[in-house]
Specification:
Pfam families: GTP_cyclohydroI. The chain is α+β, with helices and mostly antiparallel strands. Helices cover 42% and strands 25% of the residues. It has two domains: 45 residues, Orthogonal Bundle (GTP Cyclohydrolase I, Chain A, domain 1), CATH 1.10.286; 134 residues, 2-Layer Sandwich (GTP Cyclohydrolase I, domain 2), CATH 3.30.1130. It has eight helices and seven strands, in the order H-H-H-E-E-E-E-H-E-H-E-H-E-H-H. The structure holds guanosine-5'-triphosphate (GTP) and zinc ion. Zinc ion (ZN) binds next to loops.
Length: 196
């Protein structure tokens, strides 16, 4: 079992065989020098890009949840991510900003970034990615409120399909106090816009 992808050697080899078949069906010569090792490289790359399926959020968090007295908003801004659109298996990528109001506990900052990857490294749509991040932070932290804003570029709209270099898509998900309070949402968006 590979520690970076969570897949066995046998599974990676099976995926590589499928990639070899696809490359041949596309009309390429799978025996030419530049392509000989491509099916295996592609299989490993795909295994890495989908490793979130085989991870455990509790292992990711590793008990890095700490007692905290204050209730000021905590914001981690511009966490980059790379995901695969579940409709076309083409990359979409961008940034996620997370805000939360603690309720007696905070979470290690790097763990928020790791949770973003946990949900990004699989076949996804941007709306679900945003909602899943919001949901897990709310559940694991027991915060008073959570807000997640995600901005991404979708290659399936740029290099194929409508072929429009459209502005990035933004999705927002809220829970608890952020759902109830426009003021809190404004505070979050003002903070991430100003970079403070
Ligand atoms: N809501 C949402 N849609 C997405 C996301 N990623 C890709 N899509 C869209 O999924 C849709 C799939 O539409 P279909 O008509 O089934 O597929 P298609 O014929 O390849 O569509 P086109 O991309 O328009 O060529 C497209 O409109 C994509 O732009 C995402 O993260 N969220
Ligand atoms: Zn797509």
């Amino acid at each position: 079992m590979s520690s970076t992808t969570g897949l066995s050697e046998e599974t990676i080899e099976e995926i590589a065989r499928h990639y070899a078949a696809i490359i041949s069906l596309l009309g390429e010569d799978i025996t030419r020098e530049g392509l000989v090792r491509t099916p295996m490289r592609a299989a490993k790359a795909m295994a890495f890009a989908t490793r979130g399926y085989r991870q455990d959020p509790d292992v990711i968090i590793n008990d890095a949840i700490f007692t905290h007295e204050g209730s000021n908003m905590v914001i981690v801004r511009d966490i980059e991510f790379y995901s695969l659109c579940e409709h076309h298996i083409l990359p979409f990528f961008g940034k996620v900003s997370i805000g939360y109001i603690p309720d007696g506990r905070t979470i290690g900052l790097s763990k928020l970034a790791r949770l973003v990857d946990f949900y990004a490294r699989r076949l996804q749509v941007q709306e679900r990615l945003t909602a899943q991040i919001c949901d897990i932070v709310m559940k694991k932290l027991g915060a008073k409120g959570v807000i997640v804003a995600c901005t991404a570029d979708h290659l399936c709209m740029k290099m194929r399909g409508v072929e429009k270099q459209l502005p990035a898509t933004t999705t927002v998900e809220t829970a608890g106090a952020f759902t109830e309070s426009t003021t809190l949402r404004e505070e979050f968006f003002n903070a991430i816009a100003s970079g403070k």
